[in-house]
Specification:
single chain, 25% helix
Length: 279
């Protein structure tokens, strides 16, 4: 099979290749945000707001659209650090990420020759690093690995647990119809983004959703996912058409053949494809 590198392309696949080319830096970087990423890949790069990185989109996309969002997750153990700013999903709408034309992301996109409408819905990936003693695992993983329920269902069912526990404690009752109404109102994450200002109060209140991985969603968990070995760098994607072709084209035949490729069974969410190399 032939491989071509006649023009510069931007995508999560080419981004993974850049990580492989510079994989020794994972051991040298105390913080994941200090990793010497190639800034030419990004239309946006920020700290403290989701996403940390947005890969440039390709002006004439064919196989590669580019434009993927990447969030950095660093941990001193083999547990993925909590998601504080945004519940992990496979895709995100740009309108949910950008808050107004003057936001940092909007300004950076404009400077890069892009806009919200360039790619209104974008793939989300997480660059996860975990360590244990002298051992390390690094995974560039699709957000779909963590999203095994729709966000609305996750929030709604969580509130249902709170509601039913409270009703049981107080011996009060509420009709199933009223339950459904309450949960439909409170199932959107947007409800929790605002600071609530109550008249007469000396403080403002803001509800915040934090998301933590369960063992079956923890890609670093050696018991659940033993194929993700110590001291490896992994690219983990849903088992979809043309994934192998995209990785082959990004790496070139010689370098691609050095990657270990295998199928990984998610405990809740079907099959994933892994491309692995030693650190």
């Amino acid at each position: 099979m032939g491989f071509s590198h006649q023009y510069k392309m931007f995508s999560i696949f080419h981004f993974f290749k850049s990580l492989v080319d510079n994989k020794s830096s994972f051991r040298l970087s105390q913080k994941l945000e200090d990793f010497p990423f190639d800034d030419n890949f990004f239309s946006c790069k920020n700290k403290g707001i989701f996403p940390d990185l947005i890969i440039k989109s390709n002006p004439n996309p064919t196989l590669f659209t580019g434009g993927e969002m990447v969030e950095l997750k660093d941990s001193k153990s083999y547990v993925v650090s909590s998601f504080n700013s945004s519940i992990p999903t496979k895709y995100k709408k740009m309108e949910k990420v950008i808050t107004g034309e003057k936001s940092k992301i909007s300004i950076q996109l404009k400077e890069a020759g892009e806009s919200v409408n360039t790619l209104p819905i974008r793939d989300v990936f997480y660059l996860v690093r975990g360590g244990k003693n002298t051992k390390m695992k690094v995974c560039l993983v699709s957000g779909g690995f963590f999203e095994t329920l729709l966000v609305e269902d996750l929030i709604g069912q969580s509130f249902l647990q709170v509601l039913e526990e409270s009703l049981e404690k107080t011996s009060k009752k509420i009709s199933n119809e009223n339950k459904k109404t309450l949960l439909s109102i409170l199932s959107s994450q947007d409800s929790f983004r605002k600071v609530r200002n109550v008249e007469g109060a000396s403080v403002k209140l803001r509800f915040r959703i934090m998301t933590e991985v369960k063992p079956e969603g923890n890609i670093l968990n050696s018991k659940k996912y033993p194929q993700i070995e110590d001291n490896t760098l992994n690219f983990i994607l849903p088992f979809e058409k043309e994934i192998v072709k995209k990785v082959q084209l990004s790496f070139g035949e010689k370098q691609f053949n050095k990657l270990k490729t295998f199928k990984l069974k998610h405990h809740n969410n079907g099959d994933y494809l892994v491309f692995q190399t030693d650190l």
